[in-house]
Amino acid sequence: MGKNKSALITGITGQDGSYLAELLIEKKYKVYGLVRRTSTESNERIQHLLNKIELIDGDLIDQNSIINAIKQADPDEIYNLAAQSFVKTSWQQPILTGEVTGLGVIRMLEGIKTVNDKIRFYQASSSEMFGKVHEIPQKETTPFHPRSPYGVAKVYGHYITQNYRESYGIFGCNGILFNHESPRRGIEFVTRKISNAIARIHLGLQKEISLGNLDSKRDWGFAGDYVRAMWLMLQQEKPEDYVIATGETHSIRDFLDIAFKRIDIEDWSNYVKQDPRFMRPAEVDLLLGDASKARKNLGWKPEVNFKQLVDMMVDNDIKMNKLLNK
After folding, report:
1. Which position among 90, 126, 182, 216 bears the catalytic label?
2. Is 303 a catalytic residue?
């Protein structure tokens, strides 16, 4: 038996980072997480893991800190999940989004090239890269047409990973993940905003919820399923890019239907207000992923369906709000 593998996760305090850390710990990895010292992001999602992982200070904007972190962790695998990942914020902070979400990737790759070019690298690409879609469903070969500074920055990260793979032989994989949610989703994302508001309506803590476009459709999966795909990509013989998605699309209305039914409300029209403030400057079209390559090569498929996901999020938010409002 060789030594246990080790991994460095950027964005470990986020939704995906926390699920991935759990998965790798289960697989007996030594897990390191890169965290920004100044970050307002708290460690609440990884609180239960703090005695099982090692945190290293670093920042995707600072090349030296990345090189130091890679030297310190000496990992077999690096998962780059850190990003300014909120689409709406990318319109307000487009340059920061480019620095972190785009150039952060090349800093990681340069770090690998400098310290140890045998490290396997996972880059978190995004379905937002498809934006104004050229075909439905979207697969690995579908052209990109991003519709936000976030989507554009992700396209840069995607192509630069391919470039380092082709030019330097670095084992780099892009996972083009479609929307994936969980009870750990940030409250600023629409799915969690809904599940939390419905929990609060159920508990009598609020009366209504304001949302943007209710007809907006997404391919939504469970984050816990999607981090398994990330790990599988880095276990293959050769590095490739994969779309990870459920292949089903649902609208915000569908999400509301299931979530309100969970608290026994059939007609939710009096509880939901539409607010133009929540509309995006350029809305993406129908994002629907074709993950047949991942199914075939990785043996991956989602295990949690849409209804289970929505129910899980509402149940968790009811529990959380009860604790908060004791």
Report:
1. 126
2. no
